[in-house]
Input
Amino acid sequence: MKKDNSLSENELKALISLLEDDDTEILNHIRNKILSIGKPIIPLLEDTWTSSLNLKLQSRIEDILHTLQFGLLKEKLQNWYENEQDDLLKGLWILATYQYPDLEYEELKVKIEQLYFETWVSFQNVQHPIDQIRRLNSIFFEKLSFKANVNNFHSVNNSMINQVLESKKGNPISLSVVYMLIAQKLKLPVFGVNLPNLFVLTYKSEELTFYINVFNRGVIFAKQDIDNYLKQLKLPQNETFYSPCDNLAILRRTIHNLIQSFEHAAQGEKIPELIELLSILGENINDNTEK
Output
């Protein structure tokens, strides 16, 4: 069985075992060799980490695994940015693999489809847009039990789509995204809106436009409320604050939230990697709109 053009599985295992060496020059050479092999060696690294009792070896394997997995994440994100921006769930899945590298995209698709079906069953025969959103609110917050994670607002998992779907708790943008994905499957014209310090949704059709604060149990509000909100923040009116944003803006804002979460958790060493992800998405890190 070959994992690489030149090394057998036993040879790869022997190579990994050399990570126990304390000679810096040898260790760097072995590390670079393993990194050059790339994705095919990941299962052997994981197996060795699981079976080893050597904490030093485990730590070195963890570092290499993260480097390899982060490289794969960046490749997927670059492809999403160039070819797949219409698939918001896929973009959020890619970001979630930063913390959960074994997470499968199909697993998330199945969960969203299940939520849609549970909603659709109780949603039929509702016609007026306001009534539709009120019914969706009832289903989302009562039947499906989603709620704002006010007790652990800065948790990293609030920005991990798999954890939001599992715990039914999230921050303004993650809750809004799940709500929006269900609404759009119901053929409702519901989209994200990038307000300063708060992410909300808009129901926008040719006949009617109004707004939805999912973090506040789906409360419905009007353009004038945004006017007043901006006045409180002493910010000028800007069309961006009233109009649907695209999936790229949602992914960028999710990364900004992650940066804040890792800062709050005193894990600042992760921030340069997240800034790197923002650069892949065409943004320089000077924007602090989040939540």
Observations:
- Residues 1-5 have pLDDT under 50 and may be disordered.
